[in-house]
Amino acid sequence: MEDKLKQYRQKRDFNKTKEPRGTKRNKSQKLHFVVQHHLASHDHYDFRLEWNGTLKSWAIPKGPSYNPKDKRLAVMVEDHPLEYRHFEGVIPQGEYGGGTVMIFDEGEWEPIGKMGKSFPKDMLKFTLKGKRLKGSWTLVHFKEDNWLLIKEEDEFYEFADINTLKRSIKTKRTMEQIARQSKSASVIDGNQKIVENIPITHPDKVVFARPRITKWDIAMYYEQVSRRMMPFIDNRLISVIRAPQGMAGEHFFKKHLDNDNPGIGKKIVPNDKNHKEDYYYIKDVEGLISEVQMNSFEFHIWGSEVDQLEHPNMMVFDFDPDEDLDIGQLRQGVVDLKSILDDLKLPSFLKTSGGKGYHVVVPIKQHMTWRKFRMTAKNIAELMEAKWPDRYTSNVRLKNRHGRIFIDWIRNTRSATSVAPYSLRLRDNCPVSMPIPWRDLYKVKPNEIGLKEALKRLKRKDPWEDFFN
Ligand code: ATP
Ligand code: MN
Which of 127, 96, 122, 77 has the alpha carbon at shortest distance from 19? Predict the structure, then answer.
């Protein structure tokens, strides 16, 4: 063991880097693997397979590919300690491998067929059981340290374009967020400040009278849900509702930037008339809290992210029931839509709107234009109407509704928004647009989960955990 990690340790100064020295052993029979996206002098992916107490490691410049036709160069590097598979963070500039490391995928692996005591010299066929990387793969040695990583044809091939997956499988953070947070973490070490270093003015201001909820409560709420909420709100253009006098006072919609608070970014966007508008977005928790400080309590998001503005990735179907429709019919609608999405092999996730309905949200991995995205949503709503014409309409006009549910697909239009998961709503009782597991559809009413209940539910398993997988 000492021997195997000798090279690894020689290359690193453990007073300067937070990477592990390597002391742990694996007591279980299972073999682990990890893929770390490593933004150093060269952008690459580190592919590591546990074997005999260390992690056999390769640097893959282009990353693994699900396409069996791609043969990805994998350069073998020094063995890494087993604990390395948990490492996500920043290696200081000037140190070996200086840059940002993000856990791209993790799980178990198994060799296919028998394996001797020492690691094969020519070829290895194996199965990955990760969240993103699955199925059978081959590593082929061709010269010196150079190997090729190839996907075998199986039910998983061409499952996803890996380069579109930009978040940590573990913490859902982007590279930029990992870098920013590691930076503020080192400031904290030095002078003991809180992380979201935003002073909240008028913390005792009552925003909701009943239940009594202050601005401070709201700041604490958003800080606590931020771990779950950030992946759905950060780096998306937003429009917010501000209520400087609380629920009782005037509310403002806001979609343009009026400050340069920390954690907030600005984006100039051409609109359909070829004018430019400057929208803004939240980069991290600090940005979210600085918005709360400005009295933004409700957050609405675009269906795309700023660095892929013209390629949306979150499709929302909103159920707007006619006035006197009962909740049983509303829930049936959600179930009917889910059955259609299941048939189309589209994964879908459920949340309450915090108002009158439910929202069904579909992650879109395929690279598509807004036009195609919008048409896809429209087709699905029309399919519902065609299948059950007495229950659903895809037509927005109220007078066409006749006791039916309008399946609102129109918000899947460029520059349209929907309320973000975990956003509070400025409505009676301070409801939350809350992600819930499918099995809770019949237990939870659309406006039933409020701030307190939302916080309690954070202790349960994350029902949207697999959204970005
Ligand atoms: P309900 O279940 O009560 O219908 P909802 O979230 O589905 O709630 P609304 O809040 O009525 O619907 O919003 C309708 C549309 O208007 C949504 O697409 C929403 O994003 C948009 N909208 C609401 N508030 C704002 C805002 N502040 N800025 C921009 N768009 C907004
Ligand atoms: Mn609605």
Answer: 96
Q: What is the pTM of this model?
A: 0.84
Domain presence at residue 306: no
Which of 232, 300, 316, 330, when mutated, tests ligand 1's pocket best, judged by the most ligand atoms within 8 Å of its CB?
300
What's residue 145's pLDDT?
Answer: 96
CA distance linking residue 410 with residue 417, whole number of Å: 10
Ligand 1 atom nearest to CA at 356: 2
**Domain span at residue 12?**
6-178
Per-residue pLDDT band at 144 (split at 50, 70, 90): very high
Pocket test for ligand 1, best of 233, 317, 353, 409 (most atoms within 8 A of CB): 353
pLDDT of the residue at 378: 98
Which pLDDT value is given to residue 167?
92
Work out the number of other CB atoms within 10 angstroms of the CB of residue 307. 11
Angle (CA) 31-37-38 rounded to 5° is 115
pLDDT at 193 over 50: no
147 & 284 share domain: no
Among protein residues, the one whose CA lies closest to atom 30 of ligand 1 = 417
Going from the Cα of 396 to the center of ligand 1, the distance in angstroms, rounded, reads 14
In angstroms, rounded to a whole number, what is the distance separating the alpha carbons of residues 111 and 162? 23
Residue 127 banded pLDDT, cuts 50, 70, 90? very high
| Position 24 pLDDT exceeds 80 | no
| 1: in domain | no
Contact 358, 371 (CB under 8 A): no
Q: 327 and 244, same structural domain?
A: no
**Distant-in-sequence, close-in-space partners of 462: CB < 8 Å, separation ≥ 6:** 228, 435
User: CA nearest 207: which of 450, 447, 422, 421?
Assistant: 450
Give me Rg for the CA atoms of the chain. Answer: 25
Q: How far apart are alpha carbons 300 and 321 in whole angstroms?
A: 21
* Position 214 pLDDT exceeds 90: yes
CA distance 43 to 57: 16
**Residues in the ligand 1 pocket, defined by CB under 6 Å:** 239, 241, 253, 300, 318, 320, 353, 355-357, 411, 416-419, 446
Number of structural domains (the chain) is 3
Residue type, 53: G
Enter the DSSP assignment of 321. -
